[in-house]
Amino acid sequence: MAFDWQGLVVQGLNGLASASSLFLVASGLTVIFGVSRIVNFAHGSLYMLGAYLAWTLTAHGPFAELGGFWGFWGAILSAALTVAALGALVEMLVLRRLYQAPELFQLLATFALVLIVQDVALLLWGPDDKFGPRAPLLRGATEIFGARFPLYELFLIAVGPVVLGLLWLLLHRSRFGILLRAATHDREMVAALGVDQKRLFTGVFALGAGLAGLGGALQIPREAVTLHMDMAVIVEAFVVVVIGGLGSLGGAALAALIIGELHAFGILVFPRITLVLVFLVMAVVLVLRPQGLLGRGAATAPVAAPAPPLPGPMPGPLRWAAIAAAVALVGVAPFLGDYPLILLADFSVLVLFAASLHLIMGPGGMASFGHAAYFGAGAYAAALLFKHLAAPMEVGLIAAPFAAGLVGLLFGWFCVRLSGVYAAMLTLAFAQIAWSISFQWVEVTGGDNGILGVWPSGWARGRLVFFYLSLALSAAGVLLLRRIIRAPFGLALRAQRDSPLRAEAIGLDGFLLRWIAFAVSAALAGLAGALFAYGKGSVFPSFLGIPRSVDALLMVLLGGVQTLTGPIVGAIAYAGLQEQLARLTDCWRLVLGVVILALVLFFPRGLAGAFRRRDA
Amino acid sequence: MLAVDGLQAHYGRAHILHGVSLDVAAGEVACLLGRNGAGKSTTMKAIMRLLPPTGGSVRFEGRDLDGLAPHAVARIGLGYVPEERRIFPDLTVEENLEVGRRPPRPGQAPWTAERLYALFPSLGAMKKRPGGRMSGGEQQMLAIARTLMGNPRLLLLDEPSEGLAPVVVDRLAEALLGLKAEGLAILLSEQNPGFAASIADRAYLLETGQIRHHGPMAAVMADAGLRARYLSV
Ligand SMILES: Nc1ncnc2c1ncn2[C@@H]1O[C@H](COP(=O)(O)OP(=O)(O)O)[C@@H](O)[C@H]1O
Ligand SMILES: [Mg+2]
């Protein structure tokens, strides 16, 4: 085969164009993080809003009537400015109250915004994809080395460096920019010099949101506007920001370039594993250079909320209520119909899933943004054993925790070296790698079609028996976790979390402790995943998806990370709420988002914490 | 001008300040003396409300600071120079000064970068240098200059001479005397009274978060017993 220079050049240019778009989003994310230390999950939602608003403004209203060059660009810029204003509003109404809160609560709040924006976009724009107009004057294509290349893509390639230049000027030549750079380094000192941080934060959110909005708006001539844009772009933007170094603008530019080109050439070289490739690069960077390519300073403080050194016993009434509820459940179950039994089995599984994550987040003091990887590993282990070896459920349920535990050992070995946001991002990267494998390795996993027919053995096929089985295994898992947390191992784990230096001084190996905890947690999540698979009779890549990881995170955080009761209460509350809302209203995400926001703002100690006396 | 009365402060559960009371009059330089860990820095942070006090009151020019955010405290005229200096390392000298800049105050000649370069000539020679690439002495000058850009009425100076070479300390003392001559009130903190003796009018001796003694600076310098009890020998 002749070497295809043309193809390479075009592919390189494609890479530059996507790098440019990626940079717009990532630069906003990184600027916001630099100053506010908030990892804004809703950044992708702002990008999506930018795209939808641009679509609306080019199709309706004054800019649409104006038409032509000014109509188009007026619409794009207005969309970006509107999103900037929305960003400022969000900062003033929500995030401003959370600067003192633990990082994970901030993430939770921004994730609530994701849910809210999802439904608002659905309500305003409907489920259909939207196709924007093409940009005036940039409709055609040009010849580059004899290959045709769209003008608009060339324009996008220019946008990235131009925005980078403008941002550089803003940061170095304006008072606002100088204050932003100062605040990135030392917020408190900036305040002590008389600068009102509120204005600064509102300003930086407006700036970051505007960049995201612009990034989204600029996409409308080249791709459809959909309700999935938010998640797709936020994951990529996270990758870029983490590779470049949180808070580093130059790093974001460099990383956007790397990721853009990796996508472009990855398709040529390894068409099947492009997704894996991106996350692999991120994992390698995080392991070799945890602060990112151009990032500075050590990884930030632990993400987990400060927890009391020992979990107090569950408050008496709550404990008895829980036990009574469990007993009542077992007694009442035979009289329930199929649907409630399915739900109850699901709840049991989710409780185990949440409780397993709690081991990492509470006593372990780490955060996992990718716990679905282990849930999915268990589910796929069971399903693959069934599909390829026709293994029955009993074998699957035994093998699943081992398989997930092994995956946990592998991923955990990398993840537990980091702390804070970086550790969280690395867990996310590994989960995405696992997801990509399940999605792209079609021969083995069935890809998007999943694996069907993974039913329980005959004796457990009845809904009632399966519920009892789920409840029993989940309860056993939770009790095991409880024993682990209270055993010397759990004490040592907390010791390394609370005072790493002292723990080391008395001979505790923090790395080993965290690694084992990570693997145990993964194994139990795997058991939950396998149960879930048998309950549904199938597995899909979505079992390992980000939404499922976020579910686990939300359950734990809603309940509170301090005690094991927290995730249990949180799982039931979250799953119950989601279930009820989905039945009552089409806008369950909107309501759920608002509820989560309210909880984060008013019950920062979690639900279980809310039942406890203050300072108890 | 500054009246601190019964100030209490905690770090988490640790009770650090147990009722610190002190006054600084207009145009006066008062000095907080005490060993490492006595609570000098904590007192300054509590006055600035960077560490919100848990008891007592701070009044500045008759105004109660209770409930104010740190930036509001700075705006009404309290300038704070932290012990660690906390220069913004990526920002140049000029940019560091810009962060501190606040509007002029009526009845007070406003500080400008040019005036500060005249006060600290070494800064004028390195306007474009990033703060992270300056010597300790230069950083201390910059920290003071940066705070002066806010046109404070009173300067809180936390251990400015710490870790500086004797020549630099002398230059610093000279600059501070110049500021004093212009009528700026200063609350200084020091472990070593030698540097403070040349500048301060009065001294407060601090130990484990309490004022044990106060009096004219000269009297403290004259009393070796007092210094042996509350300061390093
Ligand atoms: N951030 C902090 N957290 C907990 N304790 C602190 C902190 N900073 C200072 N302390 C304690 O407060 C006491 C007073 O400290 P400080 O005000 O810094 O003393 P000084 O400035 O006089 O050396 C010391 O016992 C010190 O250990
Ligand atoms: Mg001190």
Description:
The complex is a heterodimer of chains A (616) and B (233). Chain A is an all-alpha fold. In chain A, the strands form 2 sheets. Chain A has a two-stranded antiparallel ribbon with strand order 1-2. A two-stranded antiparallel sheet of chain A has the order 3-4. In chain A, helix 6 crosses helix 7 (175-185). The N and C termini of chain A lie far apart (74 Å). Chain A has 3 domains: 32-226, no CATH class; 228-296, no CATH class; 338-544, no CATH class. In chain A, strand 1 and strand 2 form a beta hairpin. Chain A is built from 26 helices and 4 strands. Chain A is globular and about 70 Å long. Residues 298-313 of chain A have low confidence and may be disordered. The longest helix of chain A has 32 residues, at 5-36. Chain B is of the alpha/beta class. Chain B has one domain (2-230): P-loop containing nucleotide triphosphate hydrolases (Rossmann fold, 3-Layer(aba) Sandwich), CATH 3.40.50.300. Helices cover 35% and strands 27% of the residues of chain B. Chain B contains 10 helices and 10 strands. Chain B has helices at 40-48, 70-75, 93-100, 113-119, 121-124, 136-148, 166-181, 193-197, 217-222, 224-230, and strands at residues 2-11, 14-24, 29-33, 55-60, 63-64, 78-81, 154-158, 185-190, 202-207, 210-216. In chain B, the strands form 2 sheets. A 6-stranded mixed beta sheet of chain B has the order 6-7-8-3-9-10, sandwiched between helices. Chain B has a 4-stranded antiparallel beta sheet with strand order 2-1-4-5, with helices on one face. The two termini of chain B are 32 Å apart. The model of chain B has no long low-confidence stretch (mean pLDDT 94). The A-B interface holds A 175, 178-179, 181-182, 185-186, 188-197 and B 48, 50, 69-71, 74-75, 80, 82, 86, 88-91, 95-96, 98-102, 146-147, 149-150. Bound molecules: adenosine-5'-diphosphate and magnesium ion. Residues 11, 14, 16, 34, 36-42 of chain B line the site of adenosine-5'-diphosphate (ADP). Adenosine-5'-diphosphate (ADP) binds next to strand 2 and helix 1 of chain B.
